[in-house]
Amino acid sequence: MPPHESGEGAGGGVTARPCGICALIERCRAGDFADFVAELPHSFVILGDAQFYRGYCVVLARRHVNEIHLMPADEARALFDETVAVGRAVAFATRPLKLNYECLGNLEPHVHWHVFPRVETDAMRAAPIWMRPEAERKVALEDSDRRALIQTLGSELRRQISSASVAVL
Ligand SMILES: [Zn+2]
């Protein structure tokens, strides 16, 4: 049972606390999250909060599972295929030098993939993105740019996955 449903107290070995990603998915479903990009069969796609890497997206597994290896293999593969589709969309929208894909979950153990575009002009381009100080990487885009980017990403995802439901701006 995932921590957000366990209700186990002290000594249970599992900390019961709400899952931030499940909460985010609920906001996407309710139309209450400005950085929502698309709903795919196995995931929700949002713009991440580190737009120093313009076009950075996060692919949130539709279902709360703590580890990829705890997912049925078909579900894990389908989520990976959707992550690759997001990678294509980010590449199309931003023409990066390189994409970085990461599945970490140290802060929120609900399976999610980070998709970061890396650019030639980044002096730290050889380093993992997390090496850049948080205050530098966690910047927001100008609103019209953010909307245009979400629209481009959404239409590229619709082209690849016909059942994708994308943000209406
Ligand atoms: Zn969750």
Layout of strands and helices, then pairs:
Blueprint: H1 3-6, H2 20-29, E1 36-40, E2 43-47, E3 57-61, H3 73-94, E4 98-102, E5 112-118, H4 134-137, H5 143-160, E6 165-166
Antiparallel strand pairs: 1-2, 1-6, 2-3, 3-5, 4-5
Helix pairs in contact: 3-5
This protein binds zinc ion (ZN).
Question: What does it look like?
Answer:
The chain is α+β, with helices and mostly antiparallel strands. The chain has helices at 3-6, 20-29, 73-94, 134-137, 143-160; strands at 36-40, 43-47, 57-61, 98-102, 112-118, 165-166. It has a six-stranded antiparallel sheet, sandwiched between helices. Strand 1 (36-40) and strand 2 (43-47) form a beta hairpin. The chain is globular. It starts with a helix and ends with a strand. Residues 1-13 have low confidence and may be disordered. The structure holds zinc ion.
